[in-house]
């Protein structure tokens, strides 16, 4: 029977880039997924928004 060899995670910091073209609503929906990716890979996440993104919320 073969031994299972677990892949060793490197000591280097891992980064995950997350890009959202259409605003922050998708970020809110995917927050738990992003958090799970960070925990699985022991990574830090960078959130990137499109530079032409407009905040369409109305002022209070």
Explained architecture:
The protein has 60 residues and is of the alpha+beta class. The protein has a domain at 20-49. It has helices at residues 25-29, 31-41, and strands at 14-20, 43-49. Strands 1-2 form a two-stranded parallel ribbon. The chain starts with 13 loop residues before the first strand and ends in an 11-residue tail after the last strand. This is Glycosyltransferase 2-like domain-containing protein. It comes from marine sediment metagenome.
Give me some keywords for this one.
60 residues; alpha+beta; 2 strands
Quick synopsis:
The protein is an alpha+beta fold.
Percent helix: 25-40%
Number of strands: 2
Low-confidence stretches: none
The oligomeric status of these chains comes to: single chain
C-alpha Rg, in Å?
A: 17 Å
Envelope shape: elongated
Task: Characterize the largest beta sheet: strand count, sense, and whether it forms a barrel.
Answer: 2 strands, parallel
The amount of beta strand, in percent, is: 15-25%
| Backbone structural class | alpha+beta
- Largest beta sheet: what is the strand line-up? 1-2
Organism: marine sediment metagenome
Protein name: Glycosyltransferase 2-like domain-containing protein
């Amino acid at each position: 029977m073969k031994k299972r060899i677990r892949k060793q995670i490197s000591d280097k910091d891992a980064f995950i880039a997350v890009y959202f073209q259409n605003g922050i609503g998708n970020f809110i929906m995917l927050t738990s997924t992003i958090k799970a990716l960070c925990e699985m890979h022991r990574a830090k996440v960078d959130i990137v928004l499109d530079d032409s993104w407009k905040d369409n919320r109305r002022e209070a």
